[in-house]
Amino acid sequence: MTPPEDDDFETHRRRREEAIARIVAATGIDDAMIERLVRGFYARIAQEPVLGPIFAARISDWEPHLQQMMRFWSSVALMSGAYHGRPMEKHMRLPIDGAHFARWLALFEETARELCPPAAAEHFIDRAHAIAQNLEAGVARFGGR
Length: 145
Prior knowledge:
By secondary structure, the protein is an all-alpha fold.
């Protein structure tokens, strides 16, 4: 007989796989698309005159950051559970405010619309707005400038 917790785990795993399949079918998002988006977006960030220096002051080796962001966006866009981190804590220590989040969103939207099919771009953009709103509120309340 299967222990009840194994049944719960299996049910959760199956539901997650079904949710991912629905998102993939509706948007076409996959790991390769997430990688293109993340790499394209952060290439723009690195060159951006306001945001670039903030990132450059904290990131000397971009590859680990990009890998972490791919896991983050996999979790956000596909509900994969690949990311295990605390983005609020990291952002609260940064010298940022609403103008920085607005610029981040504008660059993200440009990149998503350029590199992704429309349904995928909108899926990413919707989530980016929710993330930015949450982080901006946290930074305004607990840290930042």
